[in-house]
Amino acid sequence: MNTVQNNTASTSLLAAMNPASAAPQSTAAAAQDTFMKLLVTQMQNQDPLNPLDNAQVTSQLAQLSTVTGIDKMNTTLQSLIGSYQSSQTLQAAGMIGHDVLAAGSSLSLSNGQATFGINLPGPADAVKITILDASGRPVHSMDLGSQPAGMLPLQWDGTTDSGAAAASGQYSFTVSATQGGQSVNASTLAFGQVASVASSGQGVMLNVPGLGAVNLADVQQIF
Questions:
Q1: Which one has a higher pLDDT value, 56 or 106?
Q2: Boundary of a domain, candidates 75, 93, 111
Q3: pTM
Q4: Which one of 144, 191, 195, 223 is most buried, by most CB atoms within 10 A?
Q5: How far does CA 156 lie from the centroid of its chain?
Q6: What is the mean pLDDT of the chain?
Q7: Which of 63, 93, 123 is the last residue of a domain?
Q8: Tens of pLDDT, residues 188-203
Q9: Mean pLDDT calculated for residue range 63-91
Q10: Domain ranges, residue 87
Q11: Assign residue 45 a region: left if phi > 0, alpha if psi is -120 to 50, beta otherwise?
Q12: Higher local confidence (pLDDT), 79 or 161
């Protein structure tokens, strides 16, 4: 009987630690209350000829201490995360009105000028940019030749491959890069201006017209 009661107490404590198996309102305080009730009941109903030994009580108390410690640690971590995110939000507010390059492949042409960029994880001996219109048709290609590893801001003057001037509007672009005949996994970077900053469950988000909500961690360059 002692073994069954001991296992019951242990199971209840473990359930309180596991949100998937515990009720939403379960907390370390609830676990403590449950534990004490089980422990008192266990002692009241123990066999006088075979009482609960000190090792069993110590083991159960240790489990209670673990649950309480984990709850306090989680509370502390949540507080630190909240403070860090608030600090990030305040710092990000200084980016409002600044231009940024962030992950994306969109391109906005206005008055014969469009800014974008690429990021090369390694050097490449051949880099080619293809600009596409809203229908996905190629309108201009840029052969950049050999480029070192790193971020490369680029500009397009709106001239198409036929020599005509492209209409202002939204475009997209792709990049292909190789080194010694092997593909280099280059990434595309879209350009925009930060309009506002917001804090969410995903972290600090920047509202960049034309790009949408951009995670602060995805910003590659600030102008």
A1: 106
A2: 93
A3: 0.61
A4: 191
A5: 32
A6: 80
A7: 93
A8: 999 999 999 887 777 7
A9: 68
A10: 2-93
A11: alpha
A12: 161
Q: Is 11 helix (H, G, I), strand (E, B) or coil?
A: helix
User: CB count, 10 Å around CB of 122?
Assistant: 13
CA 58 to chain centre: 41
pLDDT > 50? residue 12: no
Query: Which three-class secondary structure state does DSSP give residue 28?
Result: helix
Q: In terms of DSSP H, where are the helices of 94-130?
A: none
CA distance 68 to 111: 63
> Counting runs of H as helices and runs of E as strands, what totals does the chain give?
3, 13
pLDDT at 159 over 70: yes
The half-sphere exposure of 83 on its side-chain side, counting CA atoms within 13 A, is 6
168/185 Cα distance (integer angstroms) = 30
Sign of the C-alpha dihedral, residues 115, 119, 125, 127?
A: negative
Beta bridge partners of 178: 126, 183
- pLDDT for position 94: 84
Bridge partner list, 215: 205
Beta bridge partners of 150: 120
Q: What's the number of domains the chain is made of?
A: 2
Structure tokens at 34: 């449950």
* Same domain (yes/no): 79, 139: no
The Cα 124–Cα 185 span in angstroms is 10
Question: What single-letter amino acid sits at 165?
Answer: A
